[in-house]
Amino acid sequence: MAMKKGMKVNTIAWIAAAAVLAVAVPLNLIFTKADKSIDVTPFSAYSLSDSAVTTLSNLEKPVNMTVLYDMDLLYEGSEPGEAEYMMADMFVKTMRQMEKYDKINLTEIDVITEPEKVEKLDPDNLMNLSAGDIVLECNGRKRSIQFMTLFKTNEKTGSVEFYGENAILGAISYLQSGITPTVYFTTGHDEAKPDTCTNFVGAITSNNYEVKTLDLAAEKKIPEDALTVVMAAPQKDLSSEEKNILLDYAAGGGNISMFLSPVATKTAFVNIEAVLATYQVEMNYNRIYETNSANCWKDDRYSILCQFEDNDFTSALKNLQPTLYMPNSRSFYSTQSADENEETTTVKQEFLVSTIFDESTAIQYTAFDEIYGGNRSDADYKSPGGQYLIALNASDSARNGSKLFLSGSYDFLRDDFNTEVAEAGAATLGPYLFLSAVSWMDKINSSDAFPTRVSATDYITIPDKKTGNIILVIMIALPVLIAASGVIVWARRHNA
Question: Domain extents for the chain?
Answer without folding.
Answer: 9-34, 42-175, 182-441, 460-490
